[in-house]
Amino acid sequence: MRVLTRTEMRQVERWARKTQIAKILSFFDGLPRFIHVPKPLLLGSNNEDEILVVADMTTSRVRGVLANLDEPFNPHLRLQRTLGGKRRDKPIRALASIYQELRKGFPELCLLKGNGPCGQKIVQAHSIQKALFKKHAKNGHIYLFEVFTGKHDSEKRLWPELIGINEATTFSGFCDVHDSQTFSPIDNSPFLNIPEHKFLYHYRAFAQTYYGRAHKFRVVESAFKELAAKVPAAEIESLAEKVRWNRQDVSELEPKRRVYQEQLRAKSWPDIEGYAFEGEPMPDILMTEYFGPRKNFQGRIIQDCKSLAPLRWVSMTVSASNDRAVFLLCGEKGCPILRELADSFRKVAPTARTRAILTYVFCHFENFILLPKWWESLSKDVQLQFVNAYAGRYYPRELPDTCDWKLKEIFLKHRLLSD
User: Fold this and answer.
1) Integer Cα distance of 53 and 65 in angstroms
2) Is the peptide bond before 75 cis (omega within 30 degrees of 0)?
3) pLDDT, tens digit, for every residue of 293-336?
């Protein structure tokens, strides 16, 4: 077990008081999994408390704490919360409970039931079109982070692994008829910068996120209930917090599901607006996410994601058309958070835009794939930087410049990317 030195602890506390969270993360990224903190060590503040750690600790737990700290650090708090513990001889097998639930399978349903007749079967719908990455796969496989069943290294870091293209980014949230008919305009033609295409990309991102929160997450909830009956509450506090926040998200997403369903039925495409950017080469990652952003691309906080106040949700998509990069930011018409996010991206230097997207994606999201040609071209040290960013869940981080999609904003309404 690695014991932190006095010099290291003093340095971490200096960073904490200056809210230099990325530097603290980089320090702990270089440590082994198990550490010992001899004296209470300040990491930052969270709402009403200063947050400290002491005694036996894992670096993954420290990363989890750092991801939720206040920015900037509040030096005027009177209360302190100290996290610590003693290394167990037999660790809690939380994943074992999750695996047991996984064997039961995820729920199968059609999110568009009621919007016309459903088909005969529920399909494994791709949230990212398989046709986009099929020919860029390696022997029919691409890389992604498999959150539930993925492999970890000796320091318990999750690495991306090769997954078959038929399984990658799928969810059982549509019947065959609704999946094929609803998304046909974007699945079977190049991207057009028109309201219908933006609406459908936005809705697909929403559907994947809603299914994950309202249905797929039940696996975690069931495992949590089983653990809660066996171990002290303090030992599964982080899991309990995830369950609470997921329930809050579902309470916000459920009304939106009904609204989007009605807009889709009425073909109210202009109710969703968006900003589109095109590039020259094929993007090295593909992703889609519906989320409530806490920070913009400059790293500035744009909404409070730590309160129970309803969030402003947007979607982000990295796609392709004719093997050329497409980057989309979409949201409900007039959404100020969407405009703030788009404006912050415009301020990024053109040559740094691809790195900004990669950093934002690795630090925030789970539903994305990595093309083998790009991922395998990176050195192990560079790959580790991306893996640590994924584990840290904190933005912004300093990541290396590995590619450039040469993104430029599309202003013409009906611009076809092959033009």
Assistant:
1) 9
2) no
3) 999 999 999 999 988 899 999 999 999 999 999 999 999 999 99
